[in-house]
């Protein structure tokens, strides 16, 4: 994980989280006088001019409490110094220099890190003269931006990437697999995470997460690199009620959103339940690949065909996850956890697979010949051309003559032909139809 790290520091309300969102390319909700609302996670990958790096919004490390602001800011600045290659020191161009700004600059100036002074809230294209007062902070060049309007961000990032050290990796890394462990309370998520992160694996870093102390854990397993998302709540959990509260729906949703692959942990003692279906639904809606792990298999009373019954029940309850692999594990004994990782790797390769347009069209044409498209009032659906437009999950665009002629069942048929012919196992596919004359 040798990405350059850029962290954002500054006193509350200067616009750190707005800037963070801008840099990571998230749509910024303009929230007038609504401090901190846009902050949902503070650690993310970003890219500029094909250089990939990590951004940390130190303001999200913990919520500021009025009485401890100074010590908190100091600590955040120290974390930034320790963790990052480039520090963006954000000040508020509307309010001018404050004592806290001076405090922060004193700490930063003593570090040997590259610090860029970002003067935010300069919402007009022409830079007003009053930003020059910030030179007093002794940081050097001032870059005016408006995080809210998106002004000056490109110039800022041009500057940032200049400071990346040679020994850091800025190449796109599609190989790190981000995994979220989801499931209802007591299914065994914490136990699974603890098993995965047991001594034999190399845990390289704990990456601080959101305000509510999410921690993403980076580790290697065999030749692969993984990030387990939001392990904090689960690893340090003390009681079920604590989990119910902390690992709330919001937290689950946020973990799912950031993941490539979700491990849906099902309590083997209970079998599949409505609550599982609801959680699985979130992953499905977000287009994430899912591996279903039936846990506590060590204590499930079973006969020869028990697992077949489980599989049948799961497929009935989660029809939208027909294609997801199901594995029977024990987080407690570690049984088949290795196998789980083999499956995750193979699902990930489906999730990121690209196919060539030529072969794709051969498959689609053949599918159309094998199974004639539907007609309506004498008009027949025509399928012209297909192309893959994305991955994670694989997305396809198919040009047809008339959307009204495309029945759900025929769309499903085409999707299945693509899935089966290319071996897109375990991943959802998105197929979009577009009309063309
Ligand atoms: P943080 O506490 O430093 O993370 O600050 P926030 O990103 O939460 O922003 C604090 C407030 O400043 C919010 O009300 C934002 O809408 C506002 N703000 C952020 N960036 C800008 C900007 O470029 N221009 C203006 N006018 N307001 C901004
Ligand atoms: P979480 O709430 O989903 O994080 O679930 P936990 O990991 O805290 O597990 C809930 C309970 O199930 C604990 O008492 C665990 O010891 C137990 N448990 C978890 N996994 C297994 C397993 O594979 N086998 C058995 N027998 N018990 C398990």
TrEMBL record:
Residues 4-168, 177-352 form the EngA-type G domain. This is GTPase Der. GTP 2 binds at residues 183-190, 230-234, 295-298. Transmembrane segments: none annotated. Associates with the 50S ribosomal subunit. GO terms for molecular function: GTP binding; ribosome binding. GTPase that plays an essential role in the late steps of ribosome biogenesis. GTP 1 binds at residues 10-17, 57-61, 120-123. GO terms for biological process: ribosome biogenesis. Belongs to the TRAFAC class TrmE-Era-EngA-EngB-Septin-like GTPase superfamily. EngA (Der) GTPase family. The lineage of its organism: Bacteria, Bacillati, Bacillota, Tissierellia, Tissierellales. Keywords: GTP-binding, Nucleotide-binding, Repeat, Ribosome biogenesis.
């Amino acid at each position: 994980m040798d990405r350059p790290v850029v962290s954002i520091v500054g006193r509350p309300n200067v616009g750190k989280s707005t800037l963070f969102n801008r840099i990571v390319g998230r749509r910024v909700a303009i929230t007038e006088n609504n401090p901190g609302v846009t902050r949902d996670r503070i650690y993310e990958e970003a890219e500029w001019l094909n250089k990939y790096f990590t951004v940390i919004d130190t303001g999200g490390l913990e919520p500021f409490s009025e009485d401890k602001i100074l010590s908190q800011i100091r600590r955040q600045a120290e974390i930034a110094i320790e963790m990052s290659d480039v520090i963006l020191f954000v000040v508020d161009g509307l309010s001018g220099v404050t004592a806290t700004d001076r405090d922060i600059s004193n700490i930063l100036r003593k570090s040997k890190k590259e610090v860029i002074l970002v003067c935010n809230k300069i919402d007009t294209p022409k830079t007003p003269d009053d930003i020059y007062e910030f030179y007093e902070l002794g940081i050097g060049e001032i870059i005016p931006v408006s995080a809210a309007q998106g002004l000056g961000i490109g110039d800022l990032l041009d500057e940032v990437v200049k400071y990346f050290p040679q020994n850091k990796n800025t190449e796109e890394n599609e190989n790190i697999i981000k995994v979220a462990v989801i499931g209802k309370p007591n299914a065994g998520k914490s136990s699974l995470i603890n098993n995965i992160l047991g001594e034999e694996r190399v845990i390289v870093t704990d990456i601080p997460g959101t305000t509510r102390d999410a921690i993403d854990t980076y580790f290697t397993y065999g030749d692969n690199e993984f990030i387990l998302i939001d392990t904090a709540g689960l690893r340090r959990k003390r009681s079920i009620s604590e989990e119910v509260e902390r690992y709330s729906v919001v937290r689950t949703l946020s973990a799912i959103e950031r993941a490539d692959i979700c491990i849906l942990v099902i309590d083997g003692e209970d079998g599949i339940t409505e609550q599982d279906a609801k959680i699985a639904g979130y992953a499905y809606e977000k287009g994430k690949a899912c591996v279903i792990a039936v846990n506590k298999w060590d204590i499930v009373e079973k006969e020869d065909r028990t697992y077949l019954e489980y599989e049948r029940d799961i497929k009935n309850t989660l029809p939208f996850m027909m294609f997801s692999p199901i594995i029977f594990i024990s987080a407690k004994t570690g049984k088949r956890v290795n196998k789980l990782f083999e499956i995750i790797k193979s699902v990930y390769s489906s999730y990121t697979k690209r196919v060539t347009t030529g072969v794709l069209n051969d498959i689609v044409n053949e599918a159309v010949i094998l199974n004639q498209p539907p007609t309506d009032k004498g008009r027949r659906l025509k399928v012209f051309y297909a192309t893959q437009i994305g991955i994670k999950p694989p997305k396809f665009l198919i040009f047809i003559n008339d959307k009204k002629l495309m029945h759900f069942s025929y769309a499903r048929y085409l999707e299945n032909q693509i899935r089966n012919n290319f071996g897109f196992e375990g991943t959802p596919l998105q197929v979009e139809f577009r009309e063309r004359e």
